[in-house]
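Homework help thread (please don't just give me the answer)

Our assignment gives two proteins as sequence + structure token strings and asks us to describe the second one. The first is just a warm-up. Here they are:
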Amino acid sequence: MLEVFIFATLNGLVTGLLLFMLASGLTLIFSMMGVLNFAHASFYMLGAYVAYSISVHLGFWTGLILAPLLVGMLGALVERYALRRVHQAGHVAELVFTFGLAFLIEEAVQFFWGPDTKNYQSPDLLDFPLFTLFGQEFSAYRGFMIAISVAIFVGLYYVLTRSRVGLIIQAAITHPHTVANLGHNVPLIFMGVFGVGTALAGLAGVIAGPVLTTFPGMALVLGSIVFVIVVIGGLGSLEGAFIASLMIGLLQSYAIASDLGVPDLLSWLGLEFARDHPLNDLWTLTLPQIAPILPFLLLVLVLIFRPTGLMGNREQ
């Protein structure tokens, strides 16, 4: 039982920190620009595919460096030549534009790379067990994923709260005219923020591709979960996104590792239903079966009791 708990915790941390790596870019874009980018998960998928293509010729580590840069440059160009013009029409137009962009990227990925799953492998340098507990191995690559995610959180938190750059960025969203009068190029700041946010999504794709497999539907798998994380954590809150990511990762991991279910709860309550009961299927559900919907149940509870999110301080 102890070994199940330990490895469920480790797997939950890996999943949660991977989700944070993806959600951090979306949080950065929303907190600085007020844009909920529906195409964010598509940039994540694009990062995995670009890194795969680079790794085939130049190796994993080159892809790790170049793919996020290329995806970030693409994101910056999207903001400069498309989203900036749509922004003038309001938030609804932005949402529709990014929603359409997500479909466009998905179709482009299938056009250039095909519909099949790609054999994107983790580097040989990290192909060894980091440690062994109870006869089970924890791979070095998963430890690498944890280290990268924590580094991103620490780096972003420092830049946004302790550096001069972060102060200028935050001032640009609330007082753009004042910042412009001080000699700063506000449109360039917004373009840079959107580029960095999409680059973080691309980096998440590079890291996740070898573990979660690289295929055209990978954006759909995590796309909705990312928005759940951002809302639970509090729109625009980096700390909230970090906490919510860990909560969801651990919650799903514990549920999958558990063999408990509704029958155990009914037994504990002293209730029993006949096998021919109309809701018999409901009474036989187990935690592993409902694990995929647990984040959405958590979202409903948070919206009921704290609509601003865990770390949110105002209605968005």
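The one we have to describe:
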Amino acid sequence: MSNPFFIFTRTELIYLLVVFLLGIILGATLLNLYLSQQIDRLIYEKNSLENQLEENQKQIENLEKNLEEQKHNFVKSINIKLESDLNKHSQQAVKEKIQNLLSRVPGQEISKIEPLLLRDIINERLINVDDNTFQLHLLYLVLQEDLELYIEVSSR
């Protein structure tokens, strides 16, 4: 009478091994799904903060330059409101392109800014983002210390 070392048969060991491996695969898949959402959110926040930092640095430079030259009311910042069906990453990229188009506006004296020129820069403009072309339609703009642009974005 020999005592077997294992209390499980070979088929039971294979079954346990398969269940164990499936558990590992399922756990890794669920962990990947969970972490991918967090990574996506963090990438979006990082890009948003980098754009905001760059925008703020440009504004500070323009404001310091203008403060030395004059004591009039001038544009401090640009707020862009988009009406579109785009995902948050595409909207972020569109806003960044618009900020680049208007990068010289912050720091300018309000009375010297031509609203029609701002309209011509933005309205009906085609921009490329991630191999997609979008058309901007300026709904309205509010010219004050915090310049506000309300823009409709449509796919082209």
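TA reply:
I won't write it for you, but here's a hint about the kind of observation we're looking for: The mean pLDDT is 87.
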